[in-house]
Amino acid sequence: MKTLFLFTLIIQFTSFIFAKSNSLSGNRILVVLDNIEDKSNYSIFFKSLEDRGFDLSYSSASDDKLELIKFEESLYDHLVLLAPETNYYENDVGPKQIIEFIDKGGNVLLAANENTGSTTQDLLYEFGSVVDEAKFNVIDNFVHNSTTSSVLALDKLEIPISSDELEAPILYSGTAIKFKGKNPYSKPLLVAGPAAYSWDNSAVNKDPLVTGSNIVLVNTLQAVNNARIIITGSTKMFTDEFIESPVKINDKTYEKSGNLDFITNISKWTFQEKKVLKVISSKHHKVGETERPEYYTIKNNMHYEIELSEYNDGIWQPFNATDIQLELIMLDPYIRTTLKQQPITNPTSSTFSIDLIIPDHCGVFTFKVDYRRYGLSWILEKDVIAIHPLHYNEFPRFLGEGLPYYFGAFSMLGGFIIISILALYHEDDTKKNTDTVTSSKKEKEVAATEKKKN
C-alpha cells in the first residue's frame, strides 16, 4: 500500500513538473463567471486550456474571495472574463483594477453578450468600444446557421493573427461591438457580413447602431507593454453547445463548427503562446572592426545588425521579415533604412544587418529599431552614441570643389607680387623733369621783369 501511494505521488509530481504551459507570460489563469455553475457550459474550452498546461482558477463575480492584485502584485498571469451580465464585482475588482492588471503585463480575454452589465460596459469603454442595447443580437438573413438568423456562420477572418485557415465556419450569437475613433493598437479579427445588422425581436423602426462590416464580432488589442486583449460580443461561441454543433450553410453541411479551432487560436495568441518576438542581440561597429566604439566620427562606415527570434507553440524559430527598419535619430531621423535578412545559420534565430555611412552631422544620436506589426509582439531596441566632427588632422588638405577659391586666392597673391615689383623697380627720368621746371621758372621771371619796365 505504501509503495502504491509513493508511486502515485511520484507520478503526480512528475506530471506537475512536465505539465508546463507554452505561454511566455505564465500559466496562471483566473476565470470569472457570472455564476460558478456556468463552468459546465464551457468544459471543452477549459479542458483545452488545461491540456496546454494552464492552471485554471474559477470564481464568480460575486465571490467575496475574488482577488486580482494583492500587495501591488498580480495573482494571475491571464484573465478570462465570462461574466458579462454582472453589474458589480466583489473586492473592488472593476475596470480600474483590470486596467492596472494589464499595465502589469496581464492578458485578458473578455466576452460580452446581449445582456451586458455596467461593469463590462465600463471596461469596454476603456478600450474605446461600446455594445448595442440590451436584448439586441447580430442578425444576418444571408449568412447564418441553418434557419436561425441570429446564429451567424462565418468562414472568413478580417485580419488573421496567423496563417491558420478555418476548416469549418465559426458560429456566433451575441451583441454587436462598435469601436469609436481609430485606435492604432486595435484591429478587428472577425466582422459581420455586409447584410448584417443588430436588432431585437421587434420590428425595425429606426436605424440600427451599426450595420454591415462595421459590426465587430471579435477584436484584438495589444497594449504598449505587449499585453494582449481579445474582445468579443458572444459568450456562446465558447460553449460546448456551439463547439459541438453541426453547421449548415445553404447546401453545405459540417459535422462540427470551427469554434474550437478558432478559440484555441485566439487564446494562444492572447496568452502569448504564439507570435512573440524577442531580440537575441544587437550590435554596431565600424566596418572592419568588431567592437562597439566609444563614439563615431562623421562619415564613418558603420555596420549594424540585430538578431531576432519568433516563439510559436513552445518553439523558438527564425523570424522572417522584409520590413524591419533602422533609424538614426537626433530629434528627427537623419537616416531610415531597411535591414536586410542574412542567410539563416542558427535554427532558432535570424540576423538582419546593414552597412551605412554615418551622417555628416555631429551630436548625440539614437540608433533605434522600433518594429510594430499586427499580430506580433512589438520590439524596441535602441542605443545612444555620440557622433564627433573630424579631428584637425583628419581633414583633407585639398578639395576638388575648392579649385575656384584656390585660383582666386593665388591670382590675388600673384597680382600683388607683380604690382609690388613694378612699384619697387620702376624709375622716372628726374633730370629731364628738373630742367623743364627750371626753364619754365626763368621764362616767368623774364616776363615779370619786362612787365615792370613797361
TrEMBL record:
Mode of membrane association: Single-pass type I membrane protein
Record protein name field: Dolichyl-diphosphooligosaccharide--protein glycosyltransferase subunit WBP1
OST48 middle domain span: 284-426
Positions of transmembrane segments: 403-425
Pfam families given in the database record: OST48_MD, OST48_N
Assembly information from the UniProt record: Component of the oligosaccharyltransferase (OST) complex.
A GO cellular-component term linked to this record: oligosaccharyltransferase complex
Keyword set includes Cell membrane: no
Recorded GO MF terms: transferase activity
Organism whose genome encodes this protein: Piromyces finnis
Family listed: Belongs to the DDOST 48 kDa subunit family.
Annotated stretches, region: Disordered: 432-454
Domain OST48 N-terminal stretches: 28-270
Cell compartments where the protein resides: Endoplasmic reticulum membrane; Membrane
InterPro entries found in the cross-reference section: DDOST_48_kDa_subunit (IPR005013), OST48_MD (IPR055459), OST48_N (IPR055457)
A GO BP entry: protein N-linked glycosylation via asparagine
Residues annotated as signal peptide: 1-19
Annotated function: Subunit of the oligosaccharyl transferase (OST) complex that catalyzes the initial transfer of a defined glycan (Glc(3)Man(9)GlcNAc(2) in eukaryotes) from the lipid carrier dolichol-pyrophosphate to an asparagine residue within an Asn-X-Ser/Thr consensus motif in nascent polypeptide chains, the first step in protein N-glycosylation. N-glycosylation occurs cotranslationally and the complex associates with the Sec61 complex at the channel-forming translocon complex that mediates protein translocation across the endoplasmic reticulum (ER).
